[in-house]
Predict the structure.
Amino acid sequence: MDKLETTLFVVPARGGSKGIPNKNLREIHGKSLTEWALIVACKFLGARVALTSDSEEILAIADGKPSITAIKRPEELSKDTSTDQEALSHALHHVEETLDSRLETIVMLQPTAPSRSVQLVQKALEIMFSEGASAVWSVDEVDLKVHARKQLTLEDSGKLRLTIPSRAPLRRQDLSRTYVRNGECYALSRDVVLGDPLLLGPNARMVLSRPGGVNIDTPQDLIRAEEMLEIGTDGSLVRR
């Protein structure tokens, strides 16, 4: 059996957002952030695609699209404190009950990271399948100028200290490379989705995104995304 046949793509898109009202419905180049994530998910023929949301307006995006399962997320899983694991587990159980079959790999595509490419997601799945990874996260490399070991914490007393204690001054060559997740793609095993709140598991790997990605947190990020991204020949967004 093709491994895509036991793969579920999940686009989690809550209706609420404090930074940008209705953020997941905001548009770039004529389509909402949620639609762009679904466009990438639907490129992987044979896989299942689910849109999970507490918003009827967002779920309506799946109307007339039989390849996308719309899942109404319960209110208790749609709070600011709700976790990705909770949303993914709910979607996984819903789809499995509908299909009456078991799914082994779950791919989460967050709408707020529209700079993802189809090729990035394909690479994440290749690593997942070929290396038996428990999880594969898309990441950006952190500039050594803001390395975790260089960061400082200001205590309530006003005292400044190193966030990560060190007994000696740090040199650039002493610093290992570090990375930060960017939300473009998470490929996860079934066991991780159901059993690990951190969504990492025992054998997590990474796929490095191209520089110049954008994550939508502010209205200015939407403007930046319009400037940095364009519609590619395959109908998905690509970096200019």
Q: What stands out?
A: The mean pLDDT is 94. Helices lie at 33-41, 56-59, 84-99, 118-131, 190-195, 219-228.
